[in-house]
């Protein structure tokens, strides 16, 4: 039997919005997002850091939120799938997944899009091998990855094009 | 047959309607749902594969603050009936409850449920439940279990769930006349699961106010689940409401979540509040469902001088785990593809199914047919190698020929359409067969182990449930049906509901395409209800999403409902516009979609039509009172009940086919098999939405490659499951999955209104193909590929056994010419 449960205050920013909460030390970041902030777009698939359905960005880095305690995210800026769009306009990664039929059931998709986000921030024109490596920690059981890889290539083209245009 | 209307939308790559919510993180999956006063349930599961339960003490758990109640098997026995058994006596006598009562029969079997105000408290309380077990020797293997030296279910008196002989043609004569007889001692198809990424989830509320049971869950065959649950819980079936919304994959596995659904309802009744249960991945791996494991013994193959197979005899032992549950349907479902893609007429298969102390099996993508198709592909391939006939040539000599369709198999199934030689050619062209043959010859000179394999397989869709009567003549099932409803809502919106239960197959999109063609409107104007709901009143006893059938059963129902609606709209418009029905055209007007009279130019929009029926009814003459603009249609498959004694009859309506070719190299040092090239050719008749079909092919291919090389449900000698996490089970990832070259041909089915054939399961083509490629790579080393699962470890063991002279001789050829 556990003793009376202690709680810890934390502050974090999720999709640009600040939150102050008091949480149990054992609370996982994914539980905080889903159960406390009702951001249910982040999913749980394996509980053991294999499948990446729970991937979010913590300070720009793709992290599996089932393997981070909420208290570890104290002070962090977090981006979840709900924060990808801007004023209702889909992010180029979201558009590319739609155009390339890069999803079926859609359960893995939020995590995959955030893994893609990190990849394209670090490597604007990744080749197929780099893409496969970047999403090796994201399991998809529906698509066989084929259209996901096409979607990531399309997203890279879209985003690169946008950046080139905006820099002119 | 044709659609009867122009196909502006069917056959085209319409973007999926589902994407908007799924890409924005706004999908509604079962675990996303919270109810007022909801409680959380955890199972305490047997650590033993086989054990008597001596005592259960829940007092410490119930004392944990926040724990509301616990539930044990002993408690639920007086409240319920054991689950229905599909099979006949003696196995119909077993008592299957959703919590173990006096005995646990597999590792992970639920024994106690704990209900608390939070998942964490339920976890804490689960830790302090005391259960005393007496471990028993487990039976880990079907063949061993069939000896009945110890029993899983004492009530049955045997571990043999079912036995039947499927015999057709003149087997003895064929063997007498054979030029060659190939004997294969043992082949084995391994256990695996397609492991949907979303685990099982059940939210149940046994509402004390109206005494109804409300489920929000991700079960993928709800109409089957409610039939089992109503009988088990002693309630009127209408008292059970099941809703599903977005489902994160099922691949058949989620058909079997009804025992957990039962426990959640009973716990809700006891607690007086709604209950949520979210399965962990380890629970899913140990105790949701696995695919059927099957062993093929004493196979004899009769061949003519030219390599044409004339007869096969064999003994098949299916291992269904600890409880038959959906079984023993699998004991007959394989016979939908009795001869595979081959022409042989004479065969005798003695089929047996056994219980073992392992996770119960369930329908897993390719259910029961893939095991048999793999067996046949191994037989053809082994015979080709033994007789020195090129594997492609061997197949061409044995394939059912294009001019023979519709082709009646020895057991009375009717293959609707197909062209296997053409698919072989398309697949060869895709990968550059001739080039690879040259590369292979060069590689072999260097001592490299490079093989090219072909797998030809079938995806039989839209079951004739009459085949269940072959398993148990007393069963009340036959044929197949699906329901749909198409209506104009009060303001004239087109709304479609269908009794399917999609998990990523794009049903909202394809259903909208079909309706859009019927009404000549844009699919964006068609709202298709998401998920399944018993309250929509569109389900039949077979509604759900399974067995490769939506393109046929689901879309036929949608098409029928849309045509019915269109006919009603015509009647109403003809009255309003004062013209004849054949003067009317469906088109877009300034105020949205409308019906227009060609003659007088008058038109009425959909709101105007809906208004006449719903709100402005005084204007409606009595002869039009039967028009509701709310049209329910039940599609029924044209089946007859098969001959139960002869096991003869048509068992499925459509036969999509797949032909894969793969090039594999086995590393000489590490024995790691690596795929160098992969081509997949699909034929599912008329295609409704090409990218959706292509996506299903890639997905099924990934499941097959994963199963062939990486994914295996491994148990140790005492029944511990060794692959109970993804880290151990290793589902295929983007770095293991090769780029797949996709091709397709279309042989329209004469058995569906659109020419489409159900697809999606893919017949596990990669498993057959990779086995064949490994066989090609290793035949010269004296290795027979006798298992469907092959990895570096198993290949290393096979090679070493060969080198030290301890390999079993699995194949023996009798030559009579």
Largest sheet of chain B: 7 strands, mixed
Multimeric state of these chains? heterodimer
Tell me the number of structural domains of chain A: 2
CATH architecture label name of the largest domain in chain A: Roll
Indicate the percent of residues in helices of chain B. 25-40%
How many DSSP E strands of chain A?
5
The total number of structural domains of chain B is 3
Overall mean pLDDT of chain A stands at 94
Distance from N terminus to C terminus of chain B (CA atoms, Å) equals 49 Å
Enumerate the strands of the largest sheet of chain B in spatial order, edge to edge or round the barrel. Answer: 3-5-1-12-9-10-11
Q: What's the level 1 CATH class of the largest domain in chain B?
A: Alpha Beta
Name the pair of protein chains with the most residues at their interface, and give those residue counts: A-B, 58 and 59 residues
- The proportion of residues forming helix of chain A, as a percent range, comes to 25-40%
Order of helices and strands of chain A: EEHEEEHHHH
Q: Give the integer mean of the pLDDT values of chain B.
A: 97
The Cα radius of gyration of chain A reads 17 Å
The fold-level CATH name of the largest domain in chain A is Ubiquitin-like (UB roll)
CATH-level-4 superfamily name of the largest domain in chain A: Beta-grasp domain
Low-confidence blocks of residues of chain A: none
Chart the SSEs and their pairings.
The complex is a heterodimer of chains A (168) and B (817).
Chain A: E1 8-14, E2 17-23, H1 29-36, E3 55-58, E4 61-64, E5 77-79, H2 92-99, H3 109-122, H4 128-134, H5 146-167
Parallel strand pairs in A: 1-5
Antiparallel strand pairs in A: 1-2, 3-4, 3-5
Chain B: H1 19-23, E1 39-45, E2 51-57, H2 59-62, E3 67-72, H3 73-76, E4 103-104, E5 110-116, H4 119-127, E6 130-135, H5 142-145, E7 160-168, H6 171-177, E8 180-189, E9 201-206, E10 213-217, H7 222-233, E11 240-243, H8 258-271, E12 275-278, H9 281-287, E13 293-303, E14 309-319, H10 330-333, E15 346-354, H11 369-387, H12 391-398, E16 407-408, E17 414-415, H13 420-431, H14 433-445, E18 449-463, H15 468-471, E19 481-488, E20 494-498, H16 507-519, E21 526-528, H17 550-577, E22 584-589, E23 592-597, E24 603-605, H18 606-614, E25 630-636, E26 652-666, E27 673-683, H19 690-709, H20 726-729, E28 741-744, H21 765-778, H22 792-803, E29 811-815
Parallel strand pairs in B: 1-12, 10-11, 14-15, 20-21, 27-28
Antiparallel strand pairs in B: 1-5, 2-4, 2-6, 3-5, 7-15, 8-13, 8-29, 9-10, 9-12, 13-14, 16-17, 18-26, 19-20, 19-25, 22-23, 23-24, 26-27
Helix pairs in contact in B: 7-8, 11-21, 16-17, 19-21
């Amino acid at each position: 039997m556990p003793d009376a449960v202690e709680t810890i205050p934390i502050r974090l920013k999720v999709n640009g919005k600040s939150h102050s909460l008091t949480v149990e030390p054992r609370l996982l970041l994914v539980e905080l997002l889903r159960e406390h902030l009702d951001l249910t777009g982040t999913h749980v698939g394996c509980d053991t850091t294999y499948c990446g359905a729970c991937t979010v960005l913590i300070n720009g880095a793709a992290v599996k939120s089932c393997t981070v305690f909420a208290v570890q995210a104290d002070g962090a800026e977090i981006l979840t799938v709900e924060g990808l769009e801007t004023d209702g306009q889909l992010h180029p990664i979201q558009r590319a997944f739609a155009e390339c039929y890069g999803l079926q059931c859609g359960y893995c998709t939020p995590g995959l899009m955030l893994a893609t986000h990190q990849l394209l921030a670090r490597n604007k024109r990744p080749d197929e091998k780099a893409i496969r490596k970047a999403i090796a920690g994201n399991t998809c059981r529906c698509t066989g990855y084929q259209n996901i890889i096409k979607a990531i290539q399309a997203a890279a083209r879209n985003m690169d094009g946008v950046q080139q245009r905006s820099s002119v | 047959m044709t659609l009867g209307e122009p196909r502006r939308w069917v056959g085209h790559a319409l973007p999926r309607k589902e994407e908007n919510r799924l890409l924005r993180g706004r999908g509604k999956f079962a675990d996303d749902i919270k109810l007022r006063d909801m409680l959380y349930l955890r199972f305490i599961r047997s650590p033993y594969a086989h054990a008597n339960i001596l005592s259960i003490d829940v007092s410490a758990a119930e004392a944990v603050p926040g724990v509301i109640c616990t539930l044990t098997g002993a408690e639920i026995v007086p409240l319920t009936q054991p689950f229905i058994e599909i099979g006949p006596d003696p196995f119909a006598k077993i008592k299957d409850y959703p919590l173990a009562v006096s005995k646990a029969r597999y590792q992970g079997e639920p024994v106690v449920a704990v209900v608390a105000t939070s998942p964490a408290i339920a976890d804490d309380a689960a830790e302090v439940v005391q259960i005393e077990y007496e471990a028993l020797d487990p039976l880990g293997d079907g063949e061993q279990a069939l000896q009945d030296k110890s029993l899983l279910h004492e009530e049955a008196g045997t571990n043999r769930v079912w036995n039947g002989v499927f015999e057709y043609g003149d087997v003895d004569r064929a063997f007498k006349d054979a030029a060659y007889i190939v004997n294969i001692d043992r082949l084995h198809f391994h256990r695996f699961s397609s492991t949907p990424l979303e685990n099982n989830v059940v939210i149940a509320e046994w509402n004390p106010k109206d005494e109804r049971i409300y489920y929000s869950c991700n079960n993928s065959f709800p109409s089957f689940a409610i039939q089992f649950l109503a009988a088990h819980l002693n309630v009127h079936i209408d008292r059970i409401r099941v809703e599903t919304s977005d489902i994160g994959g099922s691949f058949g596995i989620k058909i079997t979540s009804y025992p957990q659904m039962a426990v959640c309802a009973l716990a809700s009744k006891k607690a007086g509040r709604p209950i949520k249960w979210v399965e962990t991945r380890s629970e899913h791996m140990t105790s949701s469902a696995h695919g059927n494991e099957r062993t093929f013994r004493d196979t004899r193959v009769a061949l003519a001088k030219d390599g044409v197979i004339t007869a096969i005899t064999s003994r098949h032992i299916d291992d269904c785990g600890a409880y038959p549950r959906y079984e023993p349907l699998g004991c007959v479902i394989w016979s939908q593809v009795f001869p595979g893609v081959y022409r042989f007429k004479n065969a005798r298969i003695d089929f047996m199914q056994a219980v073992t102390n392992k996770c119960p099996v369930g329908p897993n993508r390719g259910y029961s047919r893939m095991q048999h198709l793999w067996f046949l592909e191994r037989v053809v391939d082994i015979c080709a190698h033994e007789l020195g006939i090129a594997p492609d040539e061997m197949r061409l000599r044995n394939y059912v020929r294009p001019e023979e369709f519709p082709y009646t198999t020895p057991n009375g199934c009717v293959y609707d359409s197909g062209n296997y030689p053409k698919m072989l050619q398309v697949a060869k062209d895709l990968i550059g067969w001739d080039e690879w043959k040259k590369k292979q010859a060069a590689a072999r000179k260097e001592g490299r182990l490079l093989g090219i394999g072909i797998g030809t397989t079938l995806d039989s869709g839209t079951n004739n449930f009459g085949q269940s009567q072959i398993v148990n003549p007393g069963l009340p099932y036959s044929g197949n049906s699906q329901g749909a409803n198409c209506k104009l809502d009060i303001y004239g919106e087109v709304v479609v509901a269908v009794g399917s239960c999609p998990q990523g197959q794009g049903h909202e999109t394809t259903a909208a395409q079909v309706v859009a063609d019927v009404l000549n409107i844009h699919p964006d104007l068609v709202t298709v209800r998401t998920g399944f709901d018993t309250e929509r009143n569109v389900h039949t006893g077979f509604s759900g999403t399974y067995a490769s059938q939506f393109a046929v059963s689901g879309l036929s129902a949608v098409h029928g409902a849309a045509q019915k609606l269109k006919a009603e709209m015509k009647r109403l418009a003809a009255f309003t516009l004062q013209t004849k029905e054949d003067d009317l055209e469906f088109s877009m007007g300034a105020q949205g979609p409308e019906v227009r009279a060609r003659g007088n130019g008058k038109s009425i929009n959909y709101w105007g039509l809906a208004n006449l029926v719903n709100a402005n009814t005084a204007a409606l003459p009595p002869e039009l009172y039967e028009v509701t603009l709310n049209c329910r249609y039940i599609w029924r498959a044209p089946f007859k009940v098969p001959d139960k004694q002869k096991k003869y009859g048509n068992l499925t309506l459509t036969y999509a086919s797949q032909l894969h070719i793969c090039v594999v190299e086995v590393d000489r040092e590490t024995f790691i098999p690596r795929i160098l090239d992969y081509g997949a050719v699909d034929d599912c008749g008329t295609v409704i939405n090409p990218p959706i079909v292509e996506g299903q092919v890639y997905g099924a291919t990934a499941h097959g490659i994963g199963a062939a090389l990486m994914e295996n449900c491994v148990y140790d000698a005492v029944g511990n499951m060794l692959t109970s996490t993804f880290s151990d089970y290793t589902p295929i990832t983007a770095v293991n999955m090769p780029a797949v070259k996709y091709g397709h041909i279309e042989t329209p089915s004469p058995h569906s209104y659109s020419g489409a054939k159900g697809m999606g399961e893919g017949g596990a083509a990669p498993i057959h193909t990779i086995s064949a490629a490994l066989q090609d790579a290793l035949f010269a080393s004296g290795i027979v590929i006798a298992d469907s699962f092959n990895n570096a470890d198993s290949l290393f063991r096979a090679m070493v056994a060969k080198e030290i002279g301890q390999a079993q001789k699995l194949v023996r050829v009798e030559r009579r010419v």
